[in-house]
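Researcher: Structure for this, please.
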Amino acid sequence: MPPPKDVVKIAIQMVGAIPQLIELQQTKPLASVLKDVCDAWSLPNAERYALQYADGRQTYITESNRRDIKNGSILRLTTSPDQEADRLYFGIQSKNVDVKTDSLKKLASLSQDVTFAQEFISKNGLKQIYSIVEEGNDTGEILVHTLKAFTELMEHDFVSWDNLSTVFIKKIVSYVNMNAVDASIQQLSMSILENMVPTSRLLFELVKKEVTLDRLLTYLQVTNVQLQLKAMALLIALLLSATDTERRDMMDYLREKNIRQFIHKNIIHSSEPLGDEMAHYLYVLQSVSLNLCEHRMKTSMDPYSQEQRDLLHSLRQTAFESESEAPAGNFSTERRRSLCAKEFRKLGFMNNSNPAEDLRRAPPGLLALDNMVYFSRNTPNAYSRFVLENSSREDKHECPFARSSIQLTLILCEILHVGEPCSETAQAFYPMFFGQDHFFEELFCICIQLVNKTWKEMRATQEDFNKVMQVVREQITRTLALKPTSLELFKTRVNALNYSEILKLRQTERLHQEETLAVPVLELREKLKPELLELIRQQRLLHLCEGTLFRKISSRRRQDKLWYCRLSPNHKVLHYGDVEEGVQSPPIESLLEKIPVADMKMLLVGKECPHTKEKSSGKQNKDVLELAFSIVHDVEEYCLNFIAPTRYEFCLWTDGLNVLLGKEMTSERTQTDLDVLLSMELKLQLLDLENISIPDSPPPIPKPPSNLNFCYDFSHAEQ
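Model: Predicted structure, token format:
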């Protein structure tokens, strides 16, 4: 008798017949199983039939996926994939419009299944899809189903995008460029082009030439959220596939056309809430734009470049023009050189005789020079005030403008991740980025004045330079964390966070730390830990019961396919299944796939997960590895693979799954939550001891008295 894991009890349905309840032996060939099922219903030609799931995506059962069948699954006897592919192949060529429409609709649905897709493509079915599009006789519903079927078939990577004809591609492009076309056709067309662009240089150039940036900007101004999303997706695909020079030219053109205004007005401040997908695209656009600074950031100053030397000298001339222009002609070369060196020293260059040496360090390289020049030209009054104010101070208290600018540029590059590759999943963009032209330079102008303000507040000397810059970094980081919506708001908040406020914050954090390090407090912490850890466990399980929306990510692109997973209220079954865009919290009954918690064997994270190994490449994105986890169930080769939308969700799900497996919670979020809860509980319990110092060791127990005759005699009191 085979072991229990090789036998599953299932139901098989067929239209017009009484369902069969069978014990499926996983070791028995699928053809033999089908023969037995057909014989029970007296059906000839068992090879013309196949089994598929009755619910959910209705995937065909094959030898490769049969092990995914669970106890209690409901299957349906249906036409085999090759028979169905034959029927639809001829159906989509029918002269009868109704037959053709129904066939294409069915094709679009079945093409999600890899087995059917393989059969249909092997019959040269894609050629018929090409013909329908290229001939251009069909529009409306027929064209929608055709494009959807094509998208699903290409998703399986059986056919190279390079096989597409120029006529087909231009027809797809025409749907994007035409105004009098149904919005769903335009969405599907842009989705097809988005998938096509990253696959080859030739296709990128063709799409870039045929779909203008102006056309995509038009879509960003419409009220249809899905059209905006698809246009943004195509724009991002073009930017990421372009060379550095092309990307710079495209971004310059988009800036000229005021793309930030369209995004700020029609997307960020739209009446519709911003979805995760759009947030990701805005993050990528922000990242691509900031990364245009990377070349200058990594380029050291060339002391022999006349252009760069002119920029450097323009800083001196703007600051000290009135002092040096009149008598300059009367000075000898040596005297003029000495005067320049003195002025460069006042500007805050370390090497005043050869200031170019200060800019040899890369990063921040020439980007620091660009920022200083931008500040001097666009806010000349603030620039002159900064330089002249510090020139008149005592030497030891002057704030060095150039040295501060170089270090500040480096700090801003680190905070804004300039030069780092785009994440596949991140959604953290700054709304104020799209509210301002020349964002990086304008942010620098605000922050360099902050440096001077903080320098004065700290009464700093040259020896305190690094301390001042650490405070400035903290001021910028804390303010950015508040997600200000404009640079003006950022300026207001960062200036309000002065040095005394930073000291208060640091002192509060330090006192909290010192307070919690006393020996009795540490002992109390340990005593409280078990109860609070149980509270965290309950919270994690509650979060799993509420469920989370996950995205499917392929190696080719960030997909817009969604699936939902949640734990049953009794904590015994994980329910999951595909959902449509816009569905926030589907009912548990609609999630048709199940994994009993009792069947879960192990939790894998990061590089251990099978879906990260499949996708592994030389340029594997670090963020995907940090968000990936898998549940191993039944036997080790069967996994349910996840990529969490955020690090927060990753921590809560891995903790919750570890609780279900009876293991310790290991995420960094557990420690953070535990620290917060312990801090709150300790403060409550120590409330009566406020302003009372707690000794490190308990007070000594006094010696017992010499006698115990100290009982009060009430009888004497009564007399």
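Researcher: Any notable elements?
Model: Confidence is low (pLDDT under 50) at residues 324-328, 616-620. The chain has four domains: 7-79, 160-257, 298-320+336-509, 530-671.
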